[in-house]
Amino acid sequence: MKQDLDRLMEERGLDAAFVAGAVHGNPAMYYMTNGAGLTKGFVLKKRGQESLLLCWPMEREVAAASGLPVVNLAKYDFTAILRELGDRLAATVELYRRIFADLDVSGKVGFYGMDDKGRSWVLLNALDAQLADIEVCGEFDVTLIEAARTTKDGAEAEHIREIGRRTCDIIGQTVEFLQSHAVKDGALVQADGSPLTVGRMHEQINHFIAEHRLEDPEGFIFSIGRDAGVPHNKGTLDAVMELGKTIIFDIFPREAGGGYFADVTRTFCLGYAPPEIESVYRDVYDCQTMVLGAYEVGTELRRYQQMTCEFFAERGHPTIATDSQTETGYVHNLGHGMGLEIHEEPFSRDLSTDVLLPGHVFTCEPGLYYPDKGFGVRIEDDVWIDPDGAVHSLTDFPKDLVIKI
Length: 405
Description:
- The structure is a single chain.
- The chain is built from eleven helices and 21 strands.
- It has helices at 5-12, 27-32, 60-64, 78-85, 88-102, 117-130, 144-149, 154-179, 198-211, 275-292, 302-314; strands at 16-22, 40-46, 52-55, 70-72, 107-112, 134-137, 182-184, 187-189, 214-215, 221-224, 246-251, 254-255, 264-270, 336-337, 344-347, 361-364, 367-370, 375-378, 381-385, 391-393, 402-403.
- By secondary structure, it is of the alpha+beta class.
- It folds into two domains: 2-148, Creatine Amidinohydrolase, Chain A, domain 1 (3-Layer(aba) Sandwich); 150-403, Creatinase/methionine aminopeptidase superfamily (Creatine Amidinohydrolase, Alpha-Beta Complex), CATH 3.90.230.10.
- Helices cover 33% and strands 21% of the residues.
């Protein structure tokens, strides 16, 4: 949480943090600007002091909506600097020098935000070489901003819950759309008698996403049959919506403008489910129920991955615990943190040392995959641990396997 930034900066020996770049698509800037809708700018956080938002003059009023104190970059007259020096890199270094001198920044400064890697490398090296009072610092592992974002306060959790509600509405609309079609020769058909395809479903789902004022930067998964047996197969567009085959619908939109994500998966069969699929679905459902009831603050998250592998092995399924390269049975990790990125701390992978903490928001998504048998099953909910350690589901959608047609 943002309230942890000073502690995290002290632990890292940072005197200041400087976040730069666009806001949309840049989680660090979005987080530090409270989602303000400006195009780009800078946030300066000195340890023990309030963050400042530095913006270009055209966006001074948009920047004010962040709630942060605003510094108008016009006072540094970058155009005059560029005209005098005639070189963009030299002018940018001089702009930073003036900002840091004016705002009394010195010592070890961490730099964050998203930009072209080569451009950033050149700029940061130039700053380190030419600004005598500044020690440029970068972080390769979990960064300062990522560490703060790992835990969410109640307002953030409610924000994610709202995105999850809209996401579940989209799943409901998708089910209704499927049910609105007739059946012919064991498959759904459109009004003109042509088969309903995965590609047509993708078009309709994209329409639902836009209706709910969400965006889909990562691309949802809607796959059927064998495609559902490969976890990240997004679906073959000309595949036909046949009865009795598993459909995996994994949808992870975020609010328009680059905000918070939700991540929900349901598995369906149209009309009926063959006995083998019913059995595998029950194993996945029972596993998720077991894990959701076992989450406890202070426990290493990899323990739940281990529990999942043990559960599935007892029911006769291959798992990555015994064969790390298996492509059948349980082939992935149980879940991941989510927020301003779809995958962020904490992670449940077996090599993770992440410990479950109050404020964590993460997914619980066990699945079993049998591509050679033509099916896969996954169920995914979003979970938040409140300040008292209580476990809350942020996902409210039924887990019925069969869609009645």
